[in-house]
Design goal:
- Helix content is 28%, strand content 26%.
- With 255 residues, it is an alpha+beta fold.
- It has a single domain, classed as Creatine Amidinohydrolase (Alpha-Beta Complex).
- Strand 4 and strand 5 form a beta hairpin.
- The longest helix is centred in the N-terminal third of the chain and has 24 residues.
- The radius of gyration is 17 Å and the shape is globular.
- It starts with 6 loop residues before the first helix and ends with a strand.
- The structure holds 2-amino-4-trifluoromethylsulfanyl-butyric acid (MF3) and cobalt (II) ion.
- The site of 2-amino-4-trifluoromethylsulfanyl-butyric acid has 14 residues, from strand 4 and strand 5.
Length: 255
């Protein structure tokens, strides 16, 4: 069931969304060779606590039966697509790419966002992967117009990604966001224009393209969480929570 939000509810999601944006902005500035993924997680927790909010991923129990997620932040490096577990034994290296995904709950409403950044200098095609993935997110957002359908968002993301020679991951999808981290509708990064639920004023959704340099197939590592590409190709992930309004989409996970 899709839950439409009032102006007041969207304002609450905007507050959570701003905390998400603040966390990602600070973390982006910390990324450098030698930093551990655990240090990134600690910083995320510190900011969330300072804002009197709650880390939405910590303790999250997935429907697919894994153990509860143990951290505030997902940190996924290179061929890791999403849900990488922060660790004091894992350090960033020059030439890596690192995806950081964070969810925040503030006064009962959630915000969810992700970004991928290079660690120092990266290979040119890898740089292009980051650009194309972020641009595909904005293509999706541009299609999030009242009267369009979810499939218009999905198709906009997929068509752009594939036109640039990359692949979308189909195993994980975007989602509604509100009083829960994951609400209806699912928002796939692949699909057909004119298909799926109609977009209505007051919908709040997370659009989150996951894009790889090879094939889009993923598998879950032995830790029960980390999703990696089967072919070892590198992946990027960008995510915004947005509101669909009468005068167009508004990004809520932005400063
Ligand atoms: N942004 C991801 C999502 O929408 C991250 C979830 S991590 C989890 O689902 F720990 F909460 F599962
Ligand atoms: Co999400």
């Amino acid at each position: 069931m899709i839950i439409l939000k009032t102006r007041e509810e969207i304002e609450k999601i905007r507050i959570s969304g701003r905390i998400v944006a603040e966390v990602l902005q600070v973390l982006r500035g910390l990324v450098r060779p030698g930093l551990t993924t655990w240090a990134l997680n600690r910083k995320a927790e510190e900011i969330i606590k300072k804002r009197k909010a709650r880390a939405a991923f910590k303790g999250y129990k997935p429907s697919f039966g894994s153990r509860p997620y143990p951290a505030a932040l997902c940190v996924s490096i290179n061929d890791e697509v999403v849900h990488g577990l922060p660790s004091p034994r894992r350090s960033l290296r020059e030439g890596d790419i690192v995806s950081m995904d964070v969810g925040v709950e503030y006064r009962g409403y959630f915000g969810d966002g992700a970004t991928t950044v290079p660690v120092g200098d990266v290979n040119g095609r890898v740089e292009e992967l980051l650009q194309v993935t972020e641009e595909s997110l904005y293509k999706g957002i541009e299609a999030a117009i009242v009267g369009n359908r979810v499939g218009d968002i999905s198709h906009a993301v997929q068509a752009y990604v594939e036109s640039r020679g990359f692949s979308v991951v189909k195993e994980f999808v975007g989602h509604g966001v509100g009083k829960r981290l994951h609400e209806d509708p699912p928002v796939p990064n692949y699909g057909f224009p004119g298909k799926g639920p109609v977009l209505q004023e007051g919908m709040t959704i997370a659009i989150e393209p996951m894009v790889t340099m090879g094939k889009g197939d993923v598998e879950i590592k032995g830790d029960g969480w980390t999703a990696v590409t089967v072919d070892g190709s590198w992946a990027a992930h960008f995510e915004h929570t947005i509101a669909i309004l009468g005068d167009g989409p508004e990004i809520l996970t932005e400063l």
